[in-house]
Every structure is written in structure tokens, then in C-alpha cells.
Amino acid sequence: MADYTFFTNPMSRGQIARWALHEVDADYEQVLVDWKDKPAAFLEANPMGKVPTIVHHLDDGDEVVTEAAAICLYLAEMHPEAGLLPNEAETADYLRWTFFAAGPVEQAITSRALKYEPSPEQEPMAGWGNFDRTMDTLEAHLSQTRFICGDRFTMADVYVGSSVDWGLNFGILPPREAFVAYAERIQARPRYKAAKAVDNALIGEMKK
């Protein structure tokens, strides 16, 4: 049995988790989830029926991890040999910007895609405030650093990088210079390319 069972669909946030799995050289078995016929084992692991979901098979039992950001950080912890954990000086940025992407950036992108914008009166209740403020905040950080924690790639870049990459590809993130340059840096990683090749091949099969 592989170390991990990876429930995914290539046309989903599962692409984030696959990239993370590749970055740590994880031994995994994928289970493709059909939205209309979800496997019983998948729903047992994650009753929400959402991908990505991983099951880590350990000697003393299985551990289930859901939510793409949590999966990324979990894999970095389980595979310290990959060198993707932050050092003490990097920890604040590592956590701050991973969860900024999982919170405000995710919400801002989703609301823009769904054509919903909070009114000025609603902004205090919205976790992202508004789209422009979120983009300006992210841009300010990426304009002064190569990667999230400085010059060194960490697992935070898998999650934040996936958000920027997806947002640019779908025309939701504005193509600001800092975003485009950051996306180009992460796209150059061999494991990014390997993971994308797997998902793109699966998407090609699904479209036949």
C-alpha cells in the first residue's frame, strides 16, 4: 500500500495537493472522484464530499487531512527532508501568507468569479474586505520578495503560488507585474511541471 491515498479530480483544487505531494516526493495512490458517483471510501474519509482529501496510512492508524492549505502544511511537516518547512525567521511569513491566501485571497477570487462584491457597508463583515485591498496587500508583499519567505521556496509557495497561478490563468487576478513574475518563478519548478502534466493528461482524457 502507498503511504497516502489521494482523492482528487483534476479539474479542482486537487491540483494544489498533487503539486504538494510531488514537492515532497510522497508515495501516493490517486483515486479519481466522479462528482456524480463519489466513492464510499471517499465519503467515509470526508463526509463533505470535497476534494482534495488525503489519507495518510500510518503504522498506528490512518490520518485524514482535508482542505488544500492544511494538506500542504501537513505534507511539509511529515516530510521535513524535503526542506520546505520554514526556519524560525521565516515562520511568521510562512503562516501569515499561507492563511492569507486560504482566507482573503480565496474569498476575493471566489466572490469576483461569482460576480458578488460586498457593499461598503458589508465590507467590515467580509473576511477579505474587498477585492482591490486584497490584491494590493498581496502585491505589496510579492513585489519585495522572490518567494513567500524570501529567497527560498517553501511549502507556503505551493499554496500561495497555486492561488496566483489559477487566478491569472482564469483572468480573475489582475496581471500585475509582481503576480506574473512570481507565477513564472513557481512554474519553472520541475515538480510543478510534473504535477501539472499528470493533471493535464487526466483532463485531456476526460474531454475525449
Biggest sheet: strands, sense, closure? Answer: 4 strands, mixed
Shape estimate: globular
Instruction: Determine the structural class based on helices, strands and strand pairing.
Output: alpha+beta
How many H/I helical runs? 8
The amount of helix comes to 40-55%
Radius of gyration, whole Å: 17 Å
CATH class value of the largest domain: Mainly Alpha
Total DSSP E strands: 4
Main attributes of the structure:
208 residues, alpha+beta, Glutaredoxin, Glutathione S-transferase Yfyf (Class Pi), Chain A, domain 2, 2 domains, four-stranded mixed beta sheet, 50% helix
What does this structure look like?
A four-stranded mixed beta sheet has the order 2-1-3-4, covered by helices on one side. The protein has two domains: 4-83, Glutaredoxin (3-Layer(aba) Sandwich); 91-191, Up-down Bundle (Glutathione S-transferase Yfyf (Class Pi), Chain A, domain 2). Helix 3 packs antiparallel against helix 6 (155-169). 50% of the residues lie in helices and 11% in strands. The chain is of the alpha+beta class and 208 residues long. The protein contains eight helices and four strands, in the order βαβαββαααααα. It is globular and about 50 Å long.
